[in-house]
């Protein structure tokens, strides 16, 4: 997050406290990277998961993965040392990537919410409205808009009839049941997102009106609470999505390396 929101002096720390803090933060980074990498591998590899909704989840996981690789390690140093040692240029680059990836997450959660809305509320026309092409358009909009926003911020400056209709309705109920489960999971993801990021936006807004006098420790706390959202998402998938748990087992057991593994059925229609 933007470093101009933070105003604090260097805080001296003992060797033990620094070791504990580095260890804790590195565990968070490791969980973020490994968890989201598993999501990326699962959706990319298994053909059954190649759906518009899962492509959006895939893109969200990529953003969270990149955050864990390119942002969090340097944010650890800044948080613990309470100083930025890597120069002004890299500070701007780091902050731009940070803001961009967090903005990408916000856009993708919104797009996933739109996808779930049509899947649950208008299931018959859903396949025509939310196609792979639509999902890819959402993904492009999310990434491009986030890049422009972050760069500018930092560098500123109809159903069928008869018998076929009956079959369609029966099948639709089965699909809609699964979509409702996905919608509930999305609600949890959105709830966790709000809980993680709302404190940051509230503190940042208040900080502007009190001449940036908020304690640096409070700023760092709400920033890392926001970062934790990228760690929590794969854990939510693992807990609520059976297909992700099955895919994870295949990845850990290395069965994913088998030539026919991409066609394995992770769930039944």
List the main descriptive attributes of the protein structure presented here.
globular; receptor; 269 residues; TAAR_fam; trace-amine receptor activity; mainly alpha; 0% strand; single chain; transmembrane helix
Description:
This protein is mainly α and 269 residues long. 77% of the residues lie in helices and 0% in strands. It is built from nine helices and no strands. It starts with 14 loop residues before the first helix and ends in a 17-residue tail after the last helix. Its main location: membrane.
Please sum up the structure shown.
It is a multi-pass membrane protein. Helices cover 77% and strands 0% of the residues.
- Sequence stretches where pLDDT stays below 50 over 5 or more residues: 158-166
Bin the strand percentage: under 5%
DSSP summary: helix tally? 9
Largest sheet: none
Class by helix and strand content?
Answer: mainly alpha
Computed over alpha carbons, the radius of gyration is 21 Å
The 3D shape can be described as globular
Q: SSE order in H/E notation?
A: HHHHHHHHH
Helix content: over 70%
State the separation between the terminal residues, measured CA to CA. Answer: 42 Å
Mean pLDDT: 81
What's the count of strands?
0
